[in-house]
Structures are given as C-alpha cells and as structure tokens.
Amino acid sequence: MKKAIETLSGSVEEKLAAISSAISAQTNTLTEKLALIKGAVDAGLVGEDSTLSLVKKAIEALNSTAATANEKLEAIRSAIDSPASSINVKLEAIKSAVAQGVVDVAAKQDLIITALNSMSSYTFTKDELLETADDHLLVDAAFWDANHDNYEVARALKALLPLHLSHRYKFYYKQESGRYPLSDYEPTSFYGPLWEEGKILKSILNPGEVILAADLATNSTAPVYKDVSDHRCYYLKKVHKSCTYVFQVSIGARAKGKTLKVKSMSADDTMEQESDYIVYSHKSEAEKATTGVWGFKGLKYDRNAYPSNSVDFLFVSAN
Fold first, then answer.
1. Which of 46, 75, 172, 220 has its CA 20 to 30 A from that of 114?
2. How distant is the alpha carbon of residue 159 from its chain centre?
3. CA distance linking residue 154 with residue 157, whole number of Å
C-alpha cells in the first residue's frame, strides 16, 4: 500500500484528496480503508498522530452503507483482526466507532484485545488485560508479576498507550496571602501528566527505558491494587523509568523583579533564573515495588483530589 501511494501522481494535496476519496468510497471494505490510512502514514503523507480525521471518515462511510448493527460490528472486527494496518490506526478506528455509535462501549475491550493480538505473537485474554483506557491499563496483578520482564508482552501492551509523565507538575509563587501559579496562569504554570509538545516542558534529558509503571502506595513501595471482576489488578501507565524533566516557566507579575528560590528543593533538582523565566530540572526515578515490578508513588492522577497527586514546586522571594 505504501508503494502504491508513492506512485500516485500530483502534489501532496492531490494525493491526500485521492486517498480521502478512496476512504469515502462505498466499494472498499473497512479493512482496505484502514490499510490505506496506514499506507499514507508510512509514505509520510500524514503523521501517525493525524490519522483521526481519516479514520473518522472511514467509520462514517461504514455507518452509512452497512445495513445492520451486526454487519457494522463484523466489519469493524474484521478490520481490527487484519494485520494490514498499524495498532494506532486500529485503536483510532475503535475509538471513532464507539464515538459514532457503530460499536457498543461493552464491545470496545474485546475489539482492543483483538487488535492487540493481531499485532503480537503472544495471545492476551480478558482475564489478563481487564481495562484499556486512553491513558492507563488495568492488568491482572499475578499475570503482570510473571510477565513484566517479558519483552514481547511489555512491548505489545506499551503500544496501547501514549507516553506520560509520572505525575502532574505545578509551579507556584508563594506569598503570605496564598500561593499563585508562577506565570499567573495555570495552563502556563502546570504540566502533565500526558506528554505534549509546545508547553512548559522544554526537554527530557537522559531518558531511560520506557516502561509500564505501577501505582505505588504513598508511604511504601507496595502496589495499589484495584479489584475488578474477581481480579486483583495493577494500574499501569507508560512512562520513562528514569529521566530529567526540564521545565521553562514564565515569571508572572507577582514575582517580577524578585530573586526566587524553591522551598524544599530536592538535591537532584536544579534551578536557573533569567529575567522573565525560570528553568527547573527535576529528576524522575521509578522505584522497585515489593512485588518486583517498577512504579511511582501517586501515579494515578485524580483530578477531583487535592493536591491531586501532583508534584508542587513552591517558589518564594529570596530578597
């Protein structure tokens, strides 16, 4: 498919128009359409993170042509089971199918396991992988204890998740009246946990292995368990096992012109101050759990909790 796309004549825009037309056509199966999207990614016409609109169009075409709900579900299942498209394209298709009502939410997990097994020599079961969310997995603890060092199993499961930071990071300026976002605004003072470009995370230095880390208890290295369908589960996220996060945060009006210091700064962290921003380097290191898996304390982010499992950096005036 990649070679076929590369032989198309015309500009990039004309090639994309031809691909878009083929995706909308009623004569091609959903399997063929997803393979076409993968071919467009492999040929460099679209980025792998920009496939959603094409996948959505393919699902919309299916929604308008398949006669019954069973036919739609069977078309989705066949496309997901095919090795012709990448795991990312398949996951986008599942997400789009659920959003458009083509697939019941209850069938989502079965389709994800089907997609995963189509790309892996290891066969996963519903008793091992109990939940797949956009940012985490719930995996049977006994299964993960036995397989966290199994490269094939870990590689396949990591493909289901985007890269995250181990926590949400917040930069505050503290005065007697309270603490305020260092830049005066939360979006430019807070970061995470999903890794995103173009925000206050300037770079990731010395990145170690990318792992599936477990959520650990606050006061120990014991994993936090969740019981699901008679299974004891780990909450897992895809993170760097070790690295240094380098943040660049603007200095807002409250702290303008002041020499700043950080309260209770870790010995592994460093801070530099320029006239209108600070650069803060923070070391992140996973811990080995009592069960042998790797994890972080407070890895599970709860937006309704305070301080919401975040790592808070409090800046004060040193003047």
1. 46
2. 10
3. 5
